[in-house]
From TrEMBL:
<protein>
    <submittedName>
        <fullName>Alcohol dehydrogenase 1-like</fullName>
    </submittedName>
</protein>
<dbReference type="GO" id="GO:0051903">
    <property type="term" value="F:S-(hydroxymethyl)glutathione dehydrogenase [NAD(P)+] activity"/>
</dbReference>
<dbReference type="GO" id="GO:0046294">
    <property type="term" value="P:formaldehyde catabolic process"/>
</dbReference>
<keyword id="KW-0862">Zinc</keyword>
<feature type="domain" description="Enoyl reductase (ER)">
    <location>
        <begin position="23"/>
        <end position="369"/>
    </location>
</feature>
<keyword id="KW-0560">Oxidoreductase</keyword>
<dbReference type="GO" id="GO:0008270">
    <property type="term" value="F:zinc ion binding"/>
</dbReference>
<keyword id="KW-0520">NAD</keyword>
<dbReference type="Pfam" id="PF00107">
    <property type="entry name" value="ADH_zinc_N"/>
</dbReference>
<dbReference type="InterPro" id="IPR013149">
    <property type="entry name" value="ADH-like_C"/>
</dbReference>
<dbReference type="InterPro" id="IPR036291">
    <property type="entry name" value="NAD(P)-bd_dom_sf"/>
</dbReference>
<comment type="similarity">
    <text>Belongs to the zinc-containing alcohol dehydrogenase family.</text>
</comment>
<dbReference type="GO" id="GO:0005829">
    <property type="term" value="C:cytosol"/>
</dbReference>
<dbReference type="Pfam" id="PF08240">
    <property type="entry name" value="ADH_N"/>
</dbReference>
<keyword id="KW-0479">Metal-binding</keyword>
<dbReference type="InterPro" id="IPR011032">
    <property type="entry name" value="GroES-like_sf"/>
</dbReference>
<dbReference type="InterPro" id="IPR020843">
    <property type="entry name" value="ER"/>
</dbReference>
Length: 374
């Protein structure tokens, strides 16, 4: 049953506020209003730092002040009018990709996107205020806060036995990389794959290639320290572009008798996107752009596609969010996918700037921040 008294009150809590771009986050007391119609207020238990948070903080000029964070997990505290799918106490993961199940997009098996997703990173339709000022919500989630309010179409109910300080990672990075391999590329058994970039998304892509039955998985990165970790997730070969005096696409073509069957770019750099495309075998290779960026154009020669290659993009690994995330949680509990192995650091929300610095310097895969006690 809904607790009307609880719903009616504003919650004051701690959050990491990004007041302006390129500046450290500030731990502030914010006010979080009650959930309105079709909304859910969530107590965030754990969250982690993703490159997309850094992208907004360091590259965007608009959309401030905001509460960042979109890879989190928590417990429903209260629900607004019209919400029947959730009740207080449910374990949930907030989603930056919605699934309303009603629009043209949600009804189509060809996409995992929804026509009701916000079209900007920092939405003005926020339930946060701080020091009398409206604070924007980041991709509809804002998990760097003890409490957040999310539309019910962007919340996934998960297994009540799931450890929130682990499965929070399934809110973005792991699903993004893993799904890019199994859902978007549709990697086939016995194939050869190349994954460019061995951050959390790239390692998850390696894991997806292995799960799909790939025979050889090339892990490509300029940091050789990451190769041992990639082996844990299923990589069979390791290539450091700095070790070669020719383009990496040529190196891979020579190692694979013409090119890999599938390549996945998990960095977000347009020159690497082209290299990944050119690393595929010309006649049937599939290359998937996974790394997020919106800063530059990318290019390729038409003949690189005319001959038979396919160039695709993948957002959140092609998962229909409300369906896919609970299934990935179940697969984790059934030991079918790895999650714990992505976590290199554990900190508290107060240490969020330290966690951001670790990611900027590529000294972590994922840092999990403890936000609230369960």
């Amino acid at each position: 049953m809904q607790n009307i008294g609880k719903i009616s009150r504003v919650i004051k809590c701690k959050a990491a506020v990004a007041w302006e771009p390129k500046k450290p986050l500030v731990i502030e007391e914010i006010e979080v209003t009650p959930p309105q119609a079709n909304e859910v207020r969530i107590k965030i238990v754990a969250t982690s730092v993703c490159h997309t948070d850094l992208y907004h903080l360091l590259e965007d000029e608009a959309g401030f002040p905001t509460v960042l964070g979109h890879e989190g997990a928590g417990i429903v505290e209260s629900v607004g009018p019209g919400v029947t799918e959730f009740q207080p106490g449910d374990k949930v993961i907030p989603l930056f990709i919605s699934q309303c199940r009603e629009c043209r997009f949600c009804k189509s098996p060809k996409t995992n996107q929804s026509g009701r997703d916000p079209q900007m990173m920092a939405s003005a339709d926020s339930r946060f205020t701080c020091k009398g000022k409206k604070v924007l919500q980041f991709v509809g989630t804002s998990t760097f806060s003890e409490y957040t309010v999310v539309n019910q179409i962007a919340v996934a109910k998960i297994d009540p036995t799931a450890p929130l300080d682990k499965v929070c990672l399934l809110g973005c990075g792991i699903c993004t990389g893993y799904g890019a391999a199994v859902n978007t590329a549709k990697v086939e058994p016995g194939s050869t794959c190349a994954v460019f970039g061995l951050g959390a998304v790239g390692l998850a892509a390696v894991m997806g290639c292995k799960a799909a039955g790939a025979k050889r998985i090339f892990a490509v990165d300029i940091n050789p320290d990451k190769f041992e970790k990639a082996k844990v997730f299923g990589a069979t070969d390791f290539v450091n572009p700095k070790d070669h005096d020719k383009p990496i696409s040529q190196v891979l073509a020579e190692m694979t008798n013409g090119g890999v069957d599938y390549s996945l770019e998990c960095i977000g750099k347009v020159d690497i996107m082209r290299s990944a495309l050119e690393s595929c075998i010309p006649s049937w290779g599939v290359s998937v752009i996974v790394g997020w960026t919106d800063l530059e154009d990318f290019s390729a020669r038409p003949v690189q596609l005319i001959a038979g290659r396919t160039w695709k993009g993948s957002l959140f690994g092609g998962f229909k969010s409300k369906d896919g995330v609970p299934q990935m949680v179940k697969d984790y509990l059934d030991k079918k996918v790895k999650v714990d192995e992505f976590i290199t650091h554990n900190m508290t929300l107060d240490q969020v700037n330290d966690a951001i610095e670790l990611m900027k310097q590529s000294k972590c895969i994922r840092t999990v921040l403890s936000v609230s006690p369960q």
